[in-house]
Amino acid sequence: MPLPKAELHLHIEGTLEPELAFELAARNGVKLPYADTDALREAYRFENLQSFLNLYYELMAVLRTERDFEDLANAYLARAAAQGVRHAEIFFDPQAHIARGVAVGTVVEGLARALDRSEENHGVSTHLILCFLRDESAESALATLDAAKPYLDRIIGVGLDSAEVGHPPVKFREVYESAAALGLRRVAHAGEEGPPEYITEALDILGVERIDHGLRCMESPELVARLARDRVPLTLCPLSNVRLRTVDTLADHPLPAMLDAGLLCTVNSDDPAYFGGYADDNFKAVRETLALTEEQLRELARNSFEASFLEDDEERRAR
Ligand code: ES4
Ligand code: ZN
User: Where is this site: Important for catalytic activity (predicted)?
Assistant: First the structure.
């Protein structure tokens, strides 16, 4: 039985499996530039974050209706449940859909149809986190937050994702201030491909409560000491790091050193359809390759609930 866990770093668009992509393409009359699912899987050889993002945004063309987003979320929740996930904080990228003429409301209402029945159907509680694309402008992020205002009762917080280098957190100071004023929780990707300074900026300027990835903190002993002291959660994604060549091999992953340094680490799946595994596949991979002890695995699972946005009583029920 997989350990009960919370998944805190999961892009719903990154759960689009090739089979579902072709099914939705057929349903919506969208032509994909791949002959079949095998040909599509062949394209999953990434050099870096950008080469992955190109395919990730291309495949989103098949997501058009509320039903598409509902089907996508249901497929993820069923897989997550089978991997011991009891609670999922799910990212979505509204700008990537708005750019294709799909309204925020279609995305949120479609996802909500699946999330509303998730506890009953899959035993998984959920939260939604709206992410801004950091390679788009600050004005676009502000307009997106504005467009999402009618749906904020369904959204627990905001995040920041997409191409990191050259797009420092400070670019999004204003939209994060607005989000905080609206009562939204704040997280951001930082230190995946970008430097440790981006992690510090995300904390100091954007006021984030968690850092997504954060791997490159290990280059700054001062930053590691601060993250450990303040118990800032890091949502690590080991299989993603291997596929995007952030680490050379899984055996080189700094997770053991990060745990030894007293960092509040969690293990997550990022874009599981693209990176070769869901939540427990990531747990299994680090257990086997990094020789983590059973106690360390239990610590990672405990951390995932502690780092979640669940209230204490909800957390006890989910564990
Ligand atoms: C992402 Cl792995 C990763 N990093 C940054 N942005 C993303 N969006 C989807 N997956
Ligand atoms: Zn991510």
Answer: 213
**Domains in the chain: ranges and CATH:** 5-306 (3.20.20.140)
Report CA-CA distances (Å) from 71 to 7, 13, 68.
19, 12, 5
For residue 316, how far is its CA from the centre of ligand 1 (angstroms)? 30
Average pLDDT, the chain: 97
ipTM of the complex: 0.97
CA–centroid distance, 13 to ligand 1, in Å, is 10
Please choose, from the candidates 211, 207, 197, the residue with its C-alpha nearest in 3D space to the C-alpha of residue 166.
Answer: 197
Supply the pTM of this predicted model. Answer: 0.98
Measured CA to CA, the distance from residue 209 to residue 16 in angstroms comes to 28
The residue whose CA has the least distance to atom 4 of ligand 1 is 162
Q: Is 270 in the pocket of ligand 1 (CB under 6 A)?
A: yes
